[in-house]
Amino acid sequence: MAAHLVDATDVGSDDVVLDVGCGTGNVAITAARRGASVAGLDITPAMLDAARENAAIAGVEDISWRDGTATNLPFDDDTFDTTLSCVGHMFADPPTAAARELIRVTRSGGQIAFTAWTPTSVVPAMGKTVAEYLPPNSDAPDPPVLWGDPDVVRERLGDDVDEIAFETGTVRTPVLSPAHYWEAAVTQSGMFIVALENVAKDDRPTLREDTIETIEAYFDETHNTVPMTYQLTKAVVG
What we know:
26% strand; 7-stranded mixed beta sheet; 9 helices
């Protein structure tokens, strides 16, 4: 997905790029390796630490890593030529604020592009299972997977963008079993790391078993992969 996003927006050496919800740095590092001036932002300190380590391994040293949220980006208006997010902004609440911020920090004529899981993919299925173990929340935000619905995305971005386009893709994550996939999720995904912190410790073993059962429906034992389907949205800021 990282390469797909960077390719779709034709990032080059003259571009100033922001990676929102950068996680372990996949998009930021990919863009920086193509010569762009890059900032990566995430709300989870552990993800930023992993991103810095990955950047060092990749031999990329000049990315600006920032702590912050997708709903209140710590950047001036019109700062970036290209603003990207790889299944990061989709977990921000409220989503309308995240959409506004993506547009605000991008210059007129610049591009925003992001990926989001489609409603039928494995991550939303896992999220639904995990949600059953979370404390009741009458103020729960809209499901993040709505960012994978073109009609919802058009509404959220509104008239501030032009040339909006959608395409779908599939990432095949190599794992040895559904249990391995679960372990990767709770150690590498900010979404599941934060969610697990809100689950009672006594409930976590049962949650693990239930979520592994959910993953089993997607696991491809012929290739030892879990297919993850996503939608890529791209638009030009007006």
